[in-house]
Amino acid sequence: MADWHTGWTQKAERLGIANMVVSSKRNLDRGFESKLVSQLPLLAHIKQRVSYDYIFTIDGDISFADADVHGLFRSIRSARPLIAQPTIRVPASLIGGNMFSWGSQWYKALNHDQASTCGSAVEYDSPMIESQAAILSKTFLDWYHDELEQVARVQHEYQCDWGHDEMWCSAAARLSEKLPHSPPACLIIRHSVDHHDTKSIQKYQMHTNGGNFLSDCQTMEKAFQKDNIGGDGAGKGKVTRISIAALRDHTNLTCVNQWADLNGGGCKPPSHDGSQEYSAVKSYRAFMQGEACHNLQDEKAAAEESYALTKLRRPKNPFISERVMGVPGAGVPVAAAVTGAAEAVAADMRSTAAGVGAAADMLSKGRREFGPHFTPKMPLTQAPVAPVPPARSAVSEADLPTGLESLRKALRGPHRRQ
Could you say which of 240, 255, 289 is where a domain stops? Predict the structure, then answer.
């Protein structure tokens, strides 16, 4: 927080921009934290001090430098959606790093180049809005606040940020039906912001709880699936304690591009007469029940299972082997054990790097084909085996040089930071 106060806030004040910086109080040693966990207390803080109609929540790698912000706001004022977002553009220098051939975002219609094929329409109805650059109305936030609090609690527990932006468009569609003017639920607005993808989430790095980002998200997804089967009889899921209504809002986005291909690329403008003759949310949720979507989800599940069968194992921790511990009878003196340990560590690091690289390649391929929530059914790397007590006659760890002990500590796994 101090870094923001020492430069950015002063510059903002000189430009006449009222600013406020509040610490999110995240525990970075624990692992990844969802931005929703930080945003909700900040929204409560803002609500006490500022009268507003919309909140624009953006990731740290989104830039407005080349954006038509006035055009974006004109669309918001005109259409008055419950939720919206601008299209996402990737700077030319970063295009080669896109995960998808159509852009950086899984849903094709969110990308600048794809949106450019939509004809003259500037705003178009969407079944999804990502949390990356979401514009949320106060009307929706006030109505869905309790559900977002529940999701944030679960995200904090599991250390994963999946979930809320897979729920809120379906929720907004429900709210729209309750309001007399039936505003659009979710809109994509063709005024692009730039995405300088920093890839700051370390998906494979182990944290102090013994997992990593992907394994934590796996566990949370399973909890959602269990709760979608049946609640606790009190209107909440048995595992997550999220309301049944919010759990039913949860939408699998694996098939969203298939749906768009059959619906004019997802370029249909919203209804402006309040009739709600067409709803992208309802159309997509109906498409999810069809054979084409079921087949694609089956293919995704099969691919996840297939990748899980690829046994990418980290080697046994060399520090618990006889050659490292110097068990009598093995003919390995302490000096030789240290040399052998160093060689084993180097081999372990090379093998681990190769395994993680292969895992990353598999994950990228799966995400390109099935979306950002493609996750193999088991961890792609195996945590180091816990050291076992040496035999009574073995050389103790205290007899080993300090450098060896520092290497051994290094293999225990770094803390993962966002």
Answer: 289
Residue 323 scores a pLDDT above 50: no
Q: Which of 259, 289, 319 is the last residue of a domain?
A: 289
Number of residues assigned to the chain: 418
DSSP 203-269: SS---TTS--HHHHHHHHHHHHHHHHH-B-SSSBBTTT--BHHHHHH----TTHHHHHHTTGGG-PP
Helix H or strand E segment including 364: helix 334-370
From residue 265, give the alpha-carbon distance in Å to each of 71, 251, 257. 23, 19, 8
pLDDT in tens, 338-359: 455 556 545 555 555 555 556 6
Let me know whether 339 and 221 are in one domain.
no
* Residue in this structure with the two tokens 């995240």, named with its chain if needed: 26
Taking residues 164-171, report their average pLDDT.
96
142 occurs within a structural domain:
yes
Whether the Cβ atoms of residue 52 and residue 66 lie closer than 8 Å to each other: no
Q: Which residues pair with 55 in a beta bridge?
A: 136
pLDDT surpassing 90 at residue 146: yes
Answer yes or no: is 415 within a domain: no
